[in-house]
Amino acid sequence: MRQVNRKRPYARILPLLVIISVIVAATVTGCGTSTGSAAPASAAPAKQLVFYSAQGYDSAMAKAFQAKTGIQVKLVDDSTGKIVAKIDAERSNPHWDVAWFDGDSTMQGLDNEGMLLQNWTPKDVSNLTALGQSLVPADKAYYPASVTAAAAIGVNTKLLSPDQYPKDWRDLLTPVFKNSLAMNDPSISGPTYPYVAGIMDIMGTAQGKQYFQDLKANGLRVFPTNDNTLKALLAGQVKAVTIQDSALAAAEVKGDPIKIIYPSSGVFTLPGVIAINKNAPDMAAAKQFVEYVLSPAGQKVMADVKNGGGDSYFNPVINGIQPNPARQQSGINWVKVDPIKAAKDENSLKKWFHDNIVQ
Amino acid sequence: MITSSNKAEHTKAEHIGSRLRHWGSGAGDVPGAILLVVLIAYPLATLLGQALLPHLFSKPMSLLPSLAPLRSVFGSKLNLEALVNSLSIGLAEAVLAIALGSFSALALARVPRKVGVVLDAFIWVVFFVPSYVIAQGWVILMQDKGILAQLTGLPNGWSAWFFTRFGLVLIMGLRYFPYVHFGMQEALLHINQDLVQAGRAAGAGRRQIMTKIILPLLTPAWLAGGSIAFAEGFGDFGIAAAITPQAHIPMATYQIYASLSEAPVNYPAAAGMSMVVVLVTAAAIVLQFWWLKKRNYNTLSSAASRDPAGGSNRRSMAVGVAALLFVALFLPLGATLCASLWKTWSGGMSAGNWTLSHYFRALRLGGDGWQALGRSLEYSLVTAFLTMSMALVVGFQMSFKDSRLSRLLNILTMSVIAVPGIVLAASFIFAWNAVWLIPIHLVLYGTPVCLAMAYIASSLPYAIRLEVGAMSQLPANILKAAESFGARNRTVIRKIVLPLVRGTAISTFFMTFTGVMFELPASSLLYPPGQPTFSVLIQSKFDNFDWSGGAALTVIGLVVVFAAYGLGRCLVYYSARVRAEKAQQADRDMVPAAGG
What we know:
CATH class of chain B: Mainly Alpha
CATH architecture of the largest domain in chain A: 3-Layer(aba) Sandwich
CATH architecture of chain B: Orthogonal Bundle
Low-confidence stretches of chain B: 1-27
Number of strands of chain B: 0
Oligomer: heterodimer
CATH class of the largest domain in chain A: Alpha Beta
Number of domains of chain A: 3
Helix content of chain A: 40-55%
Structural class of chain A: alpha/beta
Distance between the termini of chain A: 66 Å
């Protein structure tokens, strides 16, 4: 009996066939693409650009750039958190050329790890506005292409009368907002950390922490991300939220009853920053792309709501660019959050927030 | 998330396996082992390894070991609390899933066949619908000023009880009961009627037969389904984030996500926490094996059974399952459907707020959208086929080879279910983008192959469990009989094993097919630049606060999936009928021959 069973051709051949076919397919495809993005160690013959981005208008920008230059743009569009996770996981063998997302302290984190091309100056850099200039780091590792507010106050106009609208951050401590204010968890939501860091900046660390604790005592709700927070506002679960202004703008233009308020003591700059990989496989194309984004033609692509949705409601940082008229431009008191300090304090401040406010 | 069912009756398999220990010998389980190593063990090792070698992927690479990541995991009180929360929620939810799944399986065995087919198909739908649709649907329905409040004028705060861990357990139980249902359903067909008859003859009542004979005999089935439900709940992030956003129950996966959003991304900490998740799940599985080993469940009979029940009882059973489906499926799916038809989110259910424009917009996807849909269909078909084949091979080996290697791999593949998808996806970057692969041109990261491998890795554990379950139904006697008539293994597999597990193989195919269509973590971290999948496209709608657009795309994707599933079912039904006709024809041919 065993003699028969020792010969088991079928049982052995079938799995082997499967494995062989997988390995063959893998090798063929692996080799086939290794001249492209898969193995940056080898020089790419065809002109291309691998572009990681979390911006709403990235796809339109990629197409416009490709049409203008003939350089093929391969886009990976995702949330900032996933883009950064991907870049960090690739760090020993990076595939990307250009990265673009909101949040200079996050980008500063990548710079601190030595991943970004430093001391490169795009042409036309003198076109940056004063606000724009102030957002360029000393080592020139990344450039601002737009500015939004890390947090503004969004109120549901169906639930509050205009005289109840808050004017500044501290107005949110009044009984009007008892159990009716929400924000995001900075440990999970990317743009929320600059907001928390910004409050510490303008109020001082001790008072800033006290402010969040007072909000908590007034019934502040902390949701994981913009998604939950904005839905809570629209459904009427809360009367006001403090989240990134472009997210509020996105809902406002769709016809939802939202009014965006920029607190008088200041809102915190959340620049959309663009950077080049220090070991970019396609360095020349990468530089050309960043220059295109900062040019008037590129800015026009960004400001078109058809391309970027809510992300198109930004404040320009390039001189002579017409901002989207639907967005408030004047009367905003911008407070610049120092990205180097913010990046340094990030983990300890997030932990404090989690232990004292979220919990 | 890959949804799937489980029909594993592992111990039965092991029992037969141990009897057949000498049935095969030598290196028979090596091919399966290689598959699992390449697809699961190696990627996971590159990630979990960072818990001990935190600089494994730094530049320059360093193999300097460090206990710091593990110390930080075990030293933190919050992590401990998170683990306890995840465990208790996973357990509670698994118990609920077992109760619901047992009820639905037992009930469907009693209702009239036609009603049963319809209800069964809807349970498959519960299975297919992506978790985020269910979770989001419940939120839209239950929140203050949500759909229910709008329809009935309930005051704010009416649903506070729901957005707690009780609501979470409830939703997860409703989400994962099909695992138990499908496991039990198969096992129920093969209950040894002799034992039931014996019980009746000894004067046992209906209730006694159920509690003393049928349910104990089904232990492997509900434990196997329950263990998947546990692993799913233990490793959940999305449902908890949606249902309990403000109650904030720290769970193990929350801690993993928080370390992934640290700056720089703290992979060693995520690895340490994931390692704990894997160990706990593995311990749960080992415990289950140990529990099953103590008893003998080898009570298979080949005769299908159908318990005769009274008419009114049948009707109430059918109504019960329909009610379960109403809560588990129609409420959340209906809420999502409504939301996809709203002009504005804040407008809610008000009369003037309805539009089809999101669907028109979604169908006018443009070239990119259709390409993404086509791409996802291609991935789905290819990975479903490969997963089905591999699960057959590995399942066969696990069922009939009781080697330590296969048992270890079995535990490992199950543990993978509890690892958050994003962690498994990141591990594929580390594994297939590693510097040591550059000289041999095997940097698969960034190619479609890498994404397909990740899809297979995340669906294989479910598929294998399903195959092992189906194969454990094969009476060892048949195989032995075939053997003693001199049949070679090839013949045994082709003529006996394959025909008997055909249905399961087809189930694993559709499970993978639909899972891949909506899979997100691996898709978004691993898709080749410039070639997004359909799920990535949907997610980018949600990321840009176009919820109605995202919901409309999801519904379109679901329609595609249902169409594929319906087509598959028709094919199976048709081929079964053709086979039956052929067999009848053969019988008819035989009779005159014998008579003449």
